[in-house]
């Protein structure tokens, strides 16, 4: 029996499978420092213990996307080792803050499969949960990936495509216990714009740009133990190692600080698409659109629904062409809920 793992192929998945992902990870303050070294992340709640305590939390948590990357990385050997591309996200919720000293593990359930018409690949849908050392769920999300077939003669399975919410309702969002923005320090946060200053339909150009470096991308994928071949092995994709989509998400989120410095915590992921591939040398910029707003009932805390778009070239606020296809310069289209002081 072979002792090495070549990863699952499309024909190895079936609806209802539960995948227990290996190698739990204890996160430390070093994880946060490394995250802030990789990205220009400046949101105050994740930068300062004192700011976090003034907001009702015991200390500064690990950045929401850093926690996401840890949980996501665990799933790669079982879900996307042989993936062609990660296609999208839905129904993502951050359920508990992650603090230094927490140990995270991941588990996934296959909730859908559909072979593509070319007979060489198929789409696999999984619902993943990240759990801490107390077996408490800290986050959950659905993603779907295009995976290669190994045996092209394997019969196509019955197609099962899950019905997913187009967007989370404000009532679906979980506000961290104790969070309170009643005494929010706008000067320390970096901007004066509060929840009431944003209008539905408003678009914000975040202005700044960052050139993606090969070394940073490789460091990020190793940090989160993301072993997908398209990110590591240049012989697997000779035109260039594909930049991990989460790297683009984190960079765009960090760039959004300029104009959304007070969108402190991501608590919901409604949907997302990696519209076009990103490679080292691409210079990415970002813009946002306010899609919705809601009160939470928590003192001083409002919820704001944002579309975050990352681009490589092109004008801000360009998204799709007349045929409804993403413009070639669009890398990421992410729809999420964040918490902001009222």
Model description:
The chain is an alpha+beta fold and 342 residues long. It has 8 helices and 11 strands. It has helices at 29-38, 49-54, 64-79, 186-189, 214-223, 229-232, 245-255, 257-260; strands at 18-20, 25-26, 83-94, 103-115, 121-131, 137-148, 203-211, 265-274, 283-295, 301-311, 330-341. Strands 1, 2, 3, 4, 5, 6, 7, 8, 9, 10 and 11 form an 11-stranded antiparallel sheet that branches. The longest helix has 16 residues, at 64-79. It is globular. The mean pLDDT is 95.
- How does the overall form come out from the CA principal axes? globular
Tell me about the biggest sheet? 11 strands, antiparallel
Strand content: 25-35%
**What does the radius of gyration come to?**
20 Å
Q: What's the number of helices?
A: 8
Q: Level of helix content?
A: 10-25%
> Which spans have pLDDT < 50 for at least 5 consecutive residues?
none
What's the pLDDT, averaged over the residues?
A: 95
Listing every helix as H and every strand as E from the N terminus to the C terminus, the arrangement reads EEHHHEEEEHEHHHHEEEE
Query: Tally of extended strands?
Result: 11
| Cα separation of the termini | 60 Å
Structural class: alpha+beta
Topology:
Layout: E1 18-20, E2 25-26, H1 29-38, H2 49-54, H3 64-79, E3 83-94, E4 103-115, E5 121-131, E6 137-148, H4 186-189, E7 203-211, H5 214-223, H6 229-232, H7 245-255, H8 257-260, E8 265-274, E9 283-295, E10 301-311, E11 330-341
Antiparallel strand pairs: 1-4, 2-4, 3-6, 3-8, 4-5, 5-6, 7-9, 8-11, 9-10, 10-11
């Amino acid at each position: 029996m072979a002792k090495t793992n070549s990863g699952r192929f499309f024909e190895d998945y079936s609806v209802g499978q539960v995948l227990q992902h290996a190698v739990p990870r204890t996160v430390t303050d070093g994880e946060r420092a490394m995250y802030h070294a990789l990205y220009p992340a400046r949101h105050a709640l994740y930068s300062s213990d004192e700011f976090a305590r003034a907001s009702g939390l015991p200390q500064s948590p690990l950045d929401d996307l850093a926690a996401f990357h840890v949980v996501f990385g665990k799933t790669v050997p079982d879900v996307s080792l042989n993936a062609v591309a990660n296609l999208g996200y839905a129904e993502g919720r951050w359920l508990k803050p992650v603090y230094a000293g927490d140990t995270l593990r991941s588990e996934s359930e296959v909730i859908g499969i559909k072979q593509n018409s070319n007979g060489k690949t198929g789409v696999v849908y999984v619902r993943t949960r990240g759990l801490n050392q107390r077996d408490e769920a800290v986050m959950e999300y659905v993603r779907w990936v295009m995976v290669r077939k190994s045996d092209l003669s394997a019969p196509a399975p019955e197609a099962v495509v899950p019905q997913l919410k187009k967007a989370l309702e404000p009532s679906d969002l979980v506000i961290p216990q104790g969070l309170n923005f009643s005494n929010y320090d706008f000067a320390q946060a970096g901007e004066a714009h509060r929840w009431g200053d944003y209008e539905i339909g408003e678009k914000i150009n975040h202005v700044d740009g960052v050139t993606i470096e090969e070394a940073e991308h490789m460091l990020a994928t190793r940090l989160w133990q993301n072993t997908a071949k398209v990110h590591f092995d240049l012989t697997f994709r000779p035109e260039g190692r594909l930049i991990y989509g989460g790297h683009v998400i984190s960079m765009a989120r960090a760039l959004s600080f300029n104009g959304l410095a007070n969108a402190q915590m991501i608590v919901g992921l409604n949907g997302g698409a990696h519209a076009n591939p990103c490679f080292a040398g691409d210079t990415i910029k970002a813009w946002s659109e306010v899609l919705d707003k809601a009160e939470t009932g928590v003192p001083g805390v409002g919820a704001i629904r944002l579309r975050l778009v990352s681009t490589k070239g092109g004008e801000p606020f360009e998204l799709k062409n007349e045929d409804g296809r993403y413009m070639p310069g669009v890398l990421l289209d992410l729809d999420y809920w964040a918490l902001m002081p009222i």
